[in-house]
Amino acid sequence: MEMYRSSGILLHPTSFDGPHGIGDLGESAYRFIDFLVKGKQSIWQILPLGPTGYGDSPYASFSSFAGNPFLINLDKLVTVGDLSAVDLEDVPDFPVDSVDYGWIINWKVPLLEKAARNFLANAGVRQTDFKNFCTQNAAWLDDFALFMAVKQDYDKKAQEADVFGAMWSNYWDEDIRLRKPKAVAQWQKEKADAIALQKVLQYYFFQQWTAVKRYANEKGIQIMGDIPIFVAPDSVDVWANRELFFLDKEGKQTVVAGVPPDYFSETGQLWGNPLYNWKVMAERNFDWWLNRIRHTLKMVDVIRIDHFRGFEGYWEIPAGEKTAIKGKWVKAPGQKFFETVKKDLGELPIVAEDLGLITKEVKDLRDRFGFPGMKILQFAFDSKESGGINATNHFLPHNHVPNSIVYTGTHDNDTTLGWYQTRTDEEKDFVRRYLGRDDHDIIWEFLRLAASSVAKWAIVPMQDVLRLGSDARTNTPSVLGGNWSWRYRAEALNDGTSGMLSYMVDLYGRDPVAWKEKEEKDKKVT
Fold first, then answer.
1. What is the 3-state secondary structure (H, E, C) of 295-337?
2. Which residues of the chain register pLDDT less than 70?
3. Paired sense of beta strands 269-274 and 255-259, if any
4. What is the pLDDT of residues 354-412, one digit of tens each?
5. Is 248 exposed, middle or buried (0-12, 13-18, 19+ CB in 10 A)?
6. DSSP state of 98
7. Strand, coil or helix: 288
8. How far is Cα of residue 143 from the mean position of the Cα atoms in its chain?
9. The whole model's pTM is what?
10. Residue 499 CB: number of other CB atoms within 10 A?
11. What is the largest CA-CA distance in the chain?
């Protein structure tokens, strides 16, 4: 992956400002891109864009291919005539600084469905475009639309029966749970209207996202997006591809994903994701994964593979365990997989999320294919991290390598201000000694530290750019509730903030255009 020295911001679209309770793909998205340009940023990193459900996590999507309808901008639906201005006259008094997902579902989903019905009822040139979209995406769209239509029906029944945790694998009737042809045909017939609505919502999403991405690219911004290595158990990915996962004949998981106990957790982390049957995957030339990567590269310019180490080996936990303690490491065919990816798709812009328990084998897999890894500055000064608080810690800038990306923190970390406020005296002392400065403006110092690293890319969460505390944190792993909800206010995108970013780019040489021009000039001289 070719990388020029650059910098960028980590921000998920749900965090945009706007009047409709959640960030979306309307004018706020374009204002943010303009803000990036003004700050001389070159990279916009986002989280997965799939439809979210319980827990609101973008890492637990109903589909690895579909888009999140919550991100659809309603004003644009008014512009094309699928909603009227009257429909948006009585917008609730949504929170300004956070997303209330329950409120959003109750208010926005009916409007989206109304727009979709209006779209289907009106013949026109867009109908041809819509049909082309459905044909081009049929490989995933047909199953997704059916899955969501059936899910809505069973979720309603579960709610009425006060059943918690209902999923396709534990609540649906056997015939549709196991996708028996007669049942599939019957549901397709009975839920034809609901299926059509789901397809229109996906059409809306991809229209709007494609326009946003095009605008970003035209402005010189690359978008980096995530592929979570695992998929959600309650997803069409598993329901429609049962043979690719370790499931029993009833569709229930036999083993699940997680990570073993460590100094952060005595019982490890029990994620509960289905595990891939890599033998079957390999027999099919990894076709599901290849399609997933192809599709993702239509949506983003660079892929970050979350939990990259899972391609070398993964922690397998028997289904039904209450913790991750009784698991075991199982080898994964990472080398064969990435060789197949390279053979079929060529050299790809892939970044490896190489955090956690990273062995020599994982590093070798990463380096064999030249994937950049990640360097987290918060980990550099954490006494519990590998290397501790001393000069050997590989997250410290003097140990960075050019083929990497430096972060102050990620979406799973506290904000840098919140993190620093909870450090021990020993850790704070090491920070001050390493910086050679006091800590009266620790965020500024960490931004400088990231920008000055030899790592080719430096990416900072928007919360750190705005110097915010723990109440602006994106996610706290293993904690339910309160995650994925932070939003900034419109006034955050001001000249002072963009000027600070621009200053860092100029001071530490993170303008990729300048590096490209220098490279071309050097070639001519040679």
1. HHHHHCCEEEEECHHHHCEEEEEECCCCCCCCCEEEECCHHHH
2. 264, 386, 526
3. antiparallel
4. 998 899 999 999 999 999 999 999 999 998 876 778 899 999 999 999 999 999 999 99
5. exposed
6. B
7. helix
8. 22
9. 0.97
10. 13
11. 76
Active site residues: 306, 353, 412
Q: Which is it for the CA torsion 189, 195, 200, 202, positive or negative?
A: negative
List the structure tokens of 368: 């064999």
- C-alpha angle 237/240/246, rounded to 5°? 75
DSSP characters for 210-271? Answer: HHHHHHHHHTT-EEEEEEESS--SSSHHHHT-GGGB-B-TTS-BSEEEEE---SS-TT-EEE
Give per-residue pLDDT as tens, 461-475: 999 999 999 999 999
Q: Cα–Cα–Cα angle for 254, 51, 245, nearest 5°? A: 20
Alpha carbons 495 and 490: distance in angstroms, whole number: 12
Amino acid, res. 39? G
Helix, strand, coil percentages, rounded to 5, for the chain? 50, 10, 40
Cβ neighbours of residue 62 under 8 Å, at least 6 residues apart?
A: 50, 51, 52, 53, 144, 147, 148, 151, 232, 234, 235, 236
* Sheet of strand 328-331, all strands in order from the earlier edge strand to the far edge: 269-274, 255-259, 313-318, 328-331
Joined together, the tokens standing for residue 222 give 């690359």
Yes or no: say if 305 and 353 are a contact pair by the CB < 8 Å rule. yes
> Euclidean distance between the first and final Cα of the chain, in Å?
24
The one-letter amino acid code at 125 reads: V
And the tokens for 247?
A: 């499931």
* Residue 374 CA: distances (Å) to CA of 46, 384, 469: 15, 18, 23
Beta strands 373-376 and 350-352, pairing class: unpaired
* DSSP β-ladder status, 269-274 and 404-407: unpaired
Q: How far apart are CA 218 and CA 301, in angstroms?
A: 13
Secondary structure (3-state) at 346: coil
CA-based nearest residue to 353, from 304, 402, 295: 304
In sequence order, the 6+-apart residues with CB closer than 8 A to the CB of 375 are 394, 395, 397, 400, 404, 405, 406, 407, 453, 455
Measured CA to CA, the distance from residue 415 to residue 178 in angstroms comes to 44
